[in-house]
UniProtKB/TrEMBL annotation:
Its main location: cytoplasm. Residues 310-324 have a biased composition (Polar residues). PANTHER family: GOLGI TO ER TRAFFIC PROTEIN 4 HOMOLOG. Keywords: Cytoplasm, Transport. Belongs to the GET4 family. GO terms for cellular component: BAT3 complex. This is Golgi to ER traffic protein 4 homolog. Gene3D superfamilies: Tetratricopeptide repeat domain.
Length: 324
C-alpha cells in the first residue's frame, strides 16, 4: 500500500487535524467518513485507506475510542472492497490501530475478527487467518501480558521461537513448577493438529533449550517431554506401530490431560493414516492396540506375497528408536 502522497488527502487531513486540535471530534469524525466514502466510490482505495488510517490513529490518540474504532473498522471494509493482498504494510497498519485501541474497549475484538476474516478472504490458503497477522497480534498481546490471547495467535502463526519465549514467561510468571512440561506439550500437540509440523519442532526445541527449569536433553527427566520428543521423531517415519507403542508406553503421562487423547486421535489420522476412533469399551488405548495388531497382520500378509520386481531406487533404512 503506497504512502500517503496525494495532495487531496493531505488537505483533508489538515482540515481534520484542525478540528481535532479545536476539540471538534465529532466534526472531524464525520469529515473523515464522508471523504473516505467519496474516495471509495471513485475506487481511490489507497487514498481512502490512508485517510481512514490517519483519522483512526488521531482519534484514538485523543481517547475518542468509539469514533477511532469506527474509522478503523472502515479501513478493513476498504481492504475488503479493494481486495488488498496481505502485505507487511497492510498488516502493520491493522496491528498499529489495534495497539492504539484501549485493551478493554468493546470495539477491539470485533475489529480484530474483521481483520482476520479479511486475510482469510484474500488468501484462502489459511483457514484461520494469515500467519503474519497472527504473529504480530501475538507479539502485541504478549507485550500487554495477555498470555491467553498471545498464545492463541502464536498458535496460528509460524513463529515457534517467539511462541516458546512467550510460553516460558507465561509459565514462570503464572504456572506451577509441576506444569513445566504441560505448557509445551499442549502447544506441540495443537500445532500438529493444525498440521504445522515444522513450527511444532521449533517451539519444542526452543522451549526445552531456554526454559530455566528444564534440564539439558533429550532425554529429559520428565516423561511427558520424552514422549513429545519421540512423537516428533515418529512423525518422520509415519509407522503406525511406532506411534501405537509410543502412546501405550507413555499412557500414564498422556492421561495427565484428557484433551491429549483427542489431539493424538487427530494426529494419528493426519500423520499415520489411522481412521477416526470407533466407540469401544477399551477406549483410546484399546483402539491403538487394535491398530497395532492390524498393522502386524498386514506385515505377515506381505511376507507371504509373491516376490515383486525390485525398484531401482534404494530404500532408505529406518533407524530404530529406543523408547526407554
Amino acid at each position: 500500500m503506497a504512502a500517503s502522497g496525494n495532495s487531496g488527502v493531505e488537505r483533508v487531513l489538515q482540515k481534520c487535524h484542525k478540528c481535532v486540535e479545536a476539540g471538534n471530534f465529532y466534526e472531524a469524525h464525520q469529515m473523515y467518513r464522508t471523504v473516505s466514502f467519496r474516495y471509495s466510490g471513485q475506487k481511490k482505495y489507497t487514498e481512502a485507506i490512508d485517510l481512514l488510517y490517519n483519522g483512526a490513529r488521531t482519534l484514538l490518540q485523543h481517547n475518542q475510542h468509539s469514533s477511532g474504532a469506527d474509522l478503523a473498522m472502515l479501513v478493513i471494509e476498504v481492504l475488503n472492497a479493494a481486495k488488498y493482498t496481505v502485505t507487511e504494510d497492510t498488516t502493520d497498519k491493522v496491528v498499529s490501530l489495534l495497539r492504539y485501541m484501549d485493551p478493554n474497549a468493546p470495539e477491539r475484538l470485533p475489529y480484530l475478527n474483521a481483520a482476520i476474516r479479511w486475510t482469510m478472504k484474500v488468501d484462502n490458503h489459511f483457514s484461520a487467518g494469515h500467519p503474519d497477522l497472527h504473529k504480530k497480534c501475538g507479539m502485541l498481546f504478549w507485550q500487554e501480558k495477555n498470555y491467553v490471547q498471545a498464545r492463541y495467535h502464536f498458535l496460528h502463526s509460524s513463529d515457534g521461537k517467539n511462541f516458546a519465549a512467550m510460553l516460558i514467561e507465561y509459565h514462570t510468571s503464572q504456572g506451577f513448577t509441576s506444569e513445566v512440561d504441560l505448557f509445551i506439550a499442549q502447544a506441540v500437540l495443537q500445532y500438529l493438529c493444525l498440521q504445522n509440523k515444522d513450527t511444532a519442532h521449533v517451539v519444542f526445541l526452543s522451549y526445552t533449550k531456554d526454559h530455566p527449569d528444564v534440564e539439558n536433553g533429550p532425554p529429559f527427566l520428565k516423561p511427558l517431554l520424552n514422549f513429545i520428543w519421540f512423537l516428533l521423531i515418529a512423525l518422520e517415519g509415519g509407522k503406525v506401530a511406532v506411534f501405537t507403542v509410543l502412546c501405550e508406553k507413555y499412557q500414564t503421562s498422556i492421561q495427565r490431560d484428557p484433551s491429549y487423547r483427542e489431539y493424538l486421535d487427530k494426529i494419528g489420522q493426519i500423520f499415520f493414516g489411522l481412521p477416526p476412533p470407533q466407540t469401544s469399551p477399551q477406549g483410546f488405548f484399546g483402539n491403538l492396540l487394535q491398530s497395532l495388531l492390524v498393522d502386524d497382520e498386514d506385515d505377515k500378509v506381505a511376507t507371504h506375497m509373491p516376490p515383486q520386481p525390485t525398484a531401482t531406487t534404494p530404500v532408505k533404512q529406518e533407524s530404530n528408536v529406543d523408547l526407554d
